[in-house]
Amino acid sequence: MFDLLATTLSGDAVTEPAGQSETLDWQWRGEGILELSPRQPCEAAVVISAGIHGNETAPVELLNQLVSELLSGERLLRVRLLVILGNPPSMRINKRFVEADMNRMFGGRHARYTPNDETRRAQELEQVMALFYRSATAAGTTQRFHYDLHTAIRGSKHVRFGLLPLQTRAKSETMLAWLDAAGLDALVHHRSPGGTFTHFSSEVFQADSCTLELGKALPFGNNDHTQFTAIRRALETLVSGEPLPARQAASPLVHYRVVQDVIRSQEDFELFIPAEALNFTAFSQGFVIAKESGKIYKVEAEEEVVLFPNPNVALGLRAGLMLVKM
Ligand SMILES: O=C(O)CCC(=O)N[C@@H](CCC(=O)O)C(=O)O
Ligand SMILES: [Zn+2]
Fold first, then answer.
1. Tens digit of pLDDT for each residue in 134-165?
2. 0.95 exceeded by pTM
3. Is the domain defined by 258-325 classed in CATH 2.40.50.630?
4. Which residues lie closer than 8 Å to 297 by C-beta, 6 or more apart?
5. Which residues contact 22 (CB under 8 A, 6 or more apart)?
6. How buried is residue 142: exposed, middle or buried, by Cβ count under 10 Å (0-12/13-18/19+)?
């Protein structure tokens, strides 16, 4: 049987676009995009994506291992599953992106960019996802999930955490229970819409969606997979319809909400978060987070913690998030 990651990284056209193993049917839906269907009816349509940022390799290796086990029959598939390796050209060069950050382009925002491979890919992923959820519904599924797997540029005080996109409907209890069982340390609740893949799947398809941050970004082959035991087990139970594993983490999940999206909108933007500060480092009221012509970002609550501080983003994009505990 083929290897999803090796085939994708090779860039070669696939010789067999669809086929069967002893337990499931599989079909390539595009470069690095594989749909797996069980032969018996099932309830859930699940999308698992990784490599939307090409240098975030641990989740790609994790997902590839899961797919290998499903294809070999070692693990049974009990959901309709769409697996997406998001940005193969950037994975090949171990860079977050080639021309522009794809995780800011979803929900049609790709149309605002000068066209490039990443805008075309974002559009392709939107279309493939639409087709997948539509055909899964036609085949009788009633639940939609999307987990988009990432790793972070900086180290983090909470090593594993999730980001829930803004949504007006209540968060699904099933998803929250799964995230807890997956051993996450924290959950961040967005308060504004974004161009992320999970915002798109939640808003357009009403999927239960979460971006998962699983550790620090390292090149292929350098990841310590013992760190991913809990999330791997949770993904296994998800795709195989098994009972949730017991939460192994020592302390309960901490919930945060985003109180400030720090946007770099001017060339003279300056960020004052120290380069060595970990994600979730706290800053006190009055601390100047960033400034640019016409705007100063300060900590407004008694204390806010920083997430993803990055002064090197393109104009108009977020250079960090400020959070408070819920
Ligand atoms: O470490 C960083 O600065 C970025 C890590 C990363 O790629 N995070 C995602 C989060 C997406 C979300 O807000 O749901 C991103 O920035 O795209
Ligand atoms: Zn990422």
1. 999 999 999 999 999 999 999 999 999 999 99
2. yes
3. yes
4. 260, 262, 288, 289, 290, 291, 322
5. 73
6. exposed
Q: What residue has token string 């999206």? A: 261
Q: Say if the ipTM goes beyond 0.95.
A: yes
Q: What's the 173 CA to ligand 1 centre distance in angstroms?
A: 24
What homologous superfamily does CATH list for 4-240? Zn peptidases (3.40.630.10)
Ligand 1 binding pocket includes 144 (Cβ within 6 Å): no
Q: From the candidates 126, 203, 213, 304, which is the catalytic residue?
A: 213
Q: What are 290's two structure tokens?
A: 């960033």
What does the pLDDT look like over 47-97, one tens digit per residue? 999 999 999 999 999 999 999 999 999 999 999 999 999 999 999 999 999
State how far the Cα of 14 lies from the Cα of 206, in Å rounded to an integer: 32
The amino acid sitting at 222 is N
**The tokens 């407004």 sit on which residue?**
300
Ligand nearest to the CA of 149: 2
- According to the annotation, is 189 in a ligand binding site? no
Handedness of CA 137, 140, 144, 146 (dihedral sign): negative
For the chain, what are the domain ranges?
A: 4-240, 258-325
CA of 285 to the centre of ligand 2 (A): 29
Q: Are 33 and 83 in contact (CB under 8 A)?
A: yes
